[in-house]
């Protein structure tokens, strides 16, 4: 028996009330993502978790939640668009498989637009794409909406080349995280300890 047990993080089923209650009661960490949509589209999920936490006698400020966000740091407009298009492709494939409208071509899924898909320009603004300052600002905007305790940076969605993904990771560590930490410290932000 492994002690302590490893933490349990749950991705998907973010709107299923039974799963949400189990996550809250067990202290698991949910992985939430707005995909290519604006962060406000999942704000109601945070509110649902807050309500569940209150219903079981827990403080919602102690609720561990992680956002999973596609992130690409660049000063180039062309590279930013390329990154958004790569992320869009991966999201399209995922949605088409999940919602059963995928067009399979041999072993690959065709790049089929999703129903009610937003324009690529809007996706680019909704993802964490841009220079280090822009990405830091968007992380803080996410925090204003979700009050999340963790963030998982997906830097290679859609096959972003290794050197560009590596540069994003370096910029996250050298510039973005210090900027975000400085601002959160000014705000007096505190984060829950994961207790499962």
Q: What percentage of amino acids are in beta strands?
A: 5-15%
Distance between the termini: 16 Å
Compressed to H and E, one letter per element, the order equals: EHEHEHEEHEHEH
Helix-strand makeup class: alpha/beta
Calculate Rg over CA atoms: 18 Å
- Low-confidence segments: none
Shape: globular
Number of strands: 7
Average the pLDDT over all residues and give the rounded result.
93
- Main beta-sheet annotation: 5 strands, parallel
Classify the helix fraction into a percent range. Answer: 40-55%
Note the topology.
Layout: E1 9-11, H1 17-26, E2 29-32, H2 43-55, E3 65-73, H3 77-98, E4 104-105, E5 108-109, H4 120-126, E6 128-130, H5 132-146, E7 150-154, H6 162-187
Parallel strand pairs: 1-2, 2-3, 3-6, 3-7
Antiparallel strand pairs: 4-5
How would you describe the overall organization of this protein?
Helices cover 47% and strands 14% of the residues. It is an alpha/beta fold. Strands 1, 2, 3, 6 and 7 form a 5-stranded parallel beta sheet that branches. Strands 4-5 form a two-stranded antiparallel sheet. Helix 1 crosses helix 2, helix 3 packs across helix 4 (120-126) and helix 5 (132-146) crosses helix 6. The chain is globular.
């Amino acid at each position: 028996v492994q002690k302590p047990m490893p933490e349990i993080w749950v991705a998907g089923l973010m709107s299923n009330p039974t799963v949400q209650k189990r996550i809250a009661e067990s202290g698991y960490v949910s992985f939430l993502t707005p995909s290519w949509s604006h962060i406000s589209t999942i704000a109601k999920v945070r509110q649902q978790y807050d309500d569940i936490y209150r219903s079981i006698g827990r403080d919602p400020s102690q609720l561990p939640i992680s956002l999973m966000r596609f992130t690409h740091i660049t000063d180039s407009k062309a590279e930013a668009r390329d990154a958004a298009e790569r992320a869009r492709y991966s999201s399209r494939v995922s949605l088409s498989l999940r919602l059963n409208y995928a067009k399979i071509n041999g072993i690959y899924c065709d790049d089929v637009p999703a129903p009610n898909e937003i324009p690529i320009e809007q996706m680019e603004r909704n993802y964490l794409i841009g220079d280090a300052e822009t990405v830091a600002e968007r992380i803080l905007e996410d925090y204003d909406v979700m009050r999340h305790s963790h963030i998982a940076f997906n830097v290679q969605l859609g096959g972003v080349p290794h050197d560009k993904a590596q540069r994003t990771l370096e910029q996250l560590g050298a510039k973005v995280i210090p900027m975000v930490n400085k601002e959160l410290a000014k705000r007096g932000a505190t984060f829950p300890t994961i207790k499962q």
